Amino acid sequence: MLILITGASKGIGFETTKYLLSHHHNIVAISRSTLSFTHPHLLSIKGDIKDENTIKMCKEYLEKNNLALDILINNAGCLINKPFEDIQLSELQEIYTTNVFAPFLWIQNLLPYLKKSQHPHIVNISSMGGILGSQKFPGLSAYSSSKGALSILTECLAEELKSFNISCNALALGAVQTEMLSQAFPNFKAPLTSQEIAEFIGWFAINGQKFFNGKILPVAVTTP
Description:
Elements: E1 2-6, H1 11-22, E2 26-31, E3 42-46, H2 52-64, E4 71-74, H3 89-114, E5 121-127, H4 141-161, E6 167-173, E7 176-177, H5 179-184, E8 192-193, H6 194-207, E9 216-219
Helix pairs in contact: 1-6, 2-3, 3-4
């Protein structure tokens, strides 16, 4: 399988990339910094997911090699922990551009290559904070609302793309020990490591479309 994952330089994206490579898949990894390892089945592209030139580089690679894209994992995310009344417009725009607009554009631009696959799967990495009725926390209004938007986008795309046999699901993650979690909850110790959640994400990306489409699946032991 050919799998593209964003936010691959650290944390969950980094560990998911390693997990998928260990299972002999071909990976296109998008990251803002250079990956700390190489692999014969890995194409590492350094770039910002918000930059159209990064999308263009991926499309050129897929087009040049006449490749089908089997799985797209929109993992890259951005968080700000700040009281609602103090959030600046520029900060809100950064959160929504990273967490909503960028995944929207990546899916849109990579559709022609997903359509070439026999069983394509789009996996959006959302958050328990973006689920209706889940516990919410002060300071995370921008982050949680953006993840809510990504979750609803997932449901919309599952319906719109099913005629192309493209499945689209979201994994709403709970507490995982990452830099982002430490930013949101500085003194909290999560029950899951990046390596542990990466194994589930990797398995789900490969197999989840056999069982689900248009679903926002809670993956959480605690929130946080």
